[in-house]
Amino acid sequence: MTNKLYDILTWEHVRNLIKQQFGVNFIKVDDFFREDTEWFPLDDWENANSLEIISLFNNLKTLEGKLIIITDASYKKELGPFHVDAFDLNEFVIKHKQSFGETFLDTDILILSVDLKKIWMFHHEGVYALIDFN
Q1: How many domains are there within the chain?
Q2: What is the rounded distance in angstroms from the CA atom of residue 14 to the CA atom of residue 20?
Q3: What is the DSSP letter of 125?
Q4: Of 25, 74, 83, 91, which sits 20 to 30 A from 16 (CA to CA)?
């Protein structure tokens, strides 16, 4: 399925990419946890604006190029991981609730850059991190 802001990828394709580029057999978010990851708290995250997490992610390392985004909406039957250009990310985040019926910052979020071998992660316990696989 194609949209001007994103493409929807198959789970099989994304899991294969993750295995090849990150060396991780991805089934759940916890599969990316590493002991050397530094986690940062997002105070009062339940009331945070979804664009705030994008700004915080950019402070860790600029989001650039093509990104694979996994939100709670990705798990809906007709959807999957989203393929979004970093240039369109803010608009994608803003339109997420209108398009999928839930806010972007609803639960766990993964943003992967296959080219950079980096994953920006927000965990539902209110912490976020950049996981570097270089």
Answers
A1: 1
A2: 10
A3: T
A4: 91
Say if residues 117 and 21 touch (Cβ distance below 8 Å). yes
**How much helix, strand and coil, in percent to the nearest 5, is found in the chain?**
35, 25, 40
The residue ranking higher by pLDDT, 33 or 93, is: 93
pLDDT band at 78 (very low <50, low <70, confident <90, very high): confident
d(C-alpha 90, C-alpha 34), whole Å: 28
2 inside domain: no
DSSP H or E stretch at residue 11: helix 11-22
* CA pair distance 122, 134, nearest whole angstrom: 20
| Averaged pLDDT, 31-56 | 86
Give the ranges where 61-122 is alpha helix by DSSP (H).
Answer: 89-100
The C-alpha R_g of the chain, in whole angstroms, comes to: 14
Q: Tell me if 103 is assigned to some domain.
A: yes
Q: Are 106 and 71 in contact (CB under 8 A)?
A: yes
Rounded Cα distance, 79 and 84, in Å:
14
Where residue 117 falls (left for φ over 0; alpha for ψ -120 to 50; beta otherwise) is left
* Count of C-beta atoms within a 10 Å radius of residue 87: 11
